[in-house]
Amino acid sequence: MKILITGIAGFVGRHLLSRIADGNKIYKKDSKKGGILKRDDKILGVDLKIDNTAVKDLTNIFSEIDLQEVNLVVREKVYKVVEKFKPEKIYHLAAQSSVSYSWNNPVETMETNVFGGLNIFNAVMKYCQLCKILVACTAEEYAGFNNFKNEAIKENFKIEPANPYAISKAAIDFFAATYYRVNRLPVYISRSFNHIGPGQSDRFVASDFAKQIVEIENGKIRPVMLVGNIEVYRDFLDVRDVVEAYCAILEKGRAGEAYNVCSGIKRKISDILDVLLSYSSVKNIEIKVDKSKMRPIDVISIYGDNSKLKLHTGWKPEYDIKGSLKDTLNWWRERSKVN
């Protein structure tokens, strides 16, 4: 089996590599599962930029991985990689995934998320038509200008993106489904809700909270946390459950269909903050709203229904929210020691 992972140097890419290759180095609870590689299997990981730290981290997870820096927007480079490697599975994770960044850089977001995906689809059609592709899309596609409030979102809900990032992901989502219907390209679509877990960038809310708490604990900043809108509800799932779902979708899912990857539980952002604060060694931290962290448009409630994913693949989440948040906080504590 030849497996290609795009976005290998990112948060989810590293966890996916760990799950596929071994499962023992990051997954404390998963050593009993082992990896899903066989003796002659090969993994190629690509990303726009893979620095020395990423190389060290990735080869520590799987020493035999082949790493290449590839700009997926450049068609010729994508074709060259696919033609030479001829993957049998592709996990397409590479993306510009920040909503706030997408507002300031909509063209770059569209190029990366749409053109990059289309280049992969077309390269596979030309060189390895039986290759199965998982395309990581997003629950932001559902957001629109409606507030779902107490209704869990199902895959058949209307796609109504409300920011440039979501628009780009909705586009590649539609392209994936169309390529399956018209060309029978075996593409599988995940619509993932909020990820959390160790190693996540502080561009995302739970990890941002955790990093600020650690900086306060270390005396680097005053005991004041800057937050955006914490009165909204979101669906949080541990990244280790996310990558387990991705593997399950490619193994047991149905080509051309979309799957919500989520916990199925809505949680208020302020509750996430409260859990993290309860683990802090510093008490009485002041919470202050920072307008720069507010989105131009913010939906009150987004949470998903994962029953289709469970039914088709047998997947189920294993990590509880408190453990995930504690792991995230402890990761930032360890990182602060290194820096």
What is the CATH architecture annotation? 3-Layer(aba) Sandwich
Number of helical regions: 12
Strand order of the largest sheet: 3-2-1-4-5-6-11
Terminus-to-terminus distance: 39 Å
Query: What's the CATH H-level superfamily name?
Result: NAD(P)-binding Rossmann-like Domain
Mean pLDDT: 93
Order of helices and strands: EHEHEHEHHEHHEEHEEEHEEHEHH
Rg calc: 19 Å
Number of individual domains: 1
What is the level 1 CATH name? Alpha Beta
Q: Would you report the number of β strands?
A: 13
CATH topology: Rossmann fold
How much helical structure, as a percent, in the residues? 40-55%
Protein described:
The chain is α/β, with parallel strands linked by helices. The radius of gyration is 19 Å and the shape is globular. Helix 1 (11-21) packs across helix 9, helix 3 packs parallel to helix 5 (106-127) and helix 5 (106-127) packs parallel to helix 7 (164-183). The protein has a single domain (2-198, 235-265, 300-319), classed as Rossmann fold. The strands form 4 sheets. It has a 7-stranded parallel sheet, with helices on both faces. A two-stranded parallel ribbon has the order 7-10. A two-stranded parallel ribbon has the order 8-13. It contains 12 helices and 13 strands. 45% of the residues are buried.
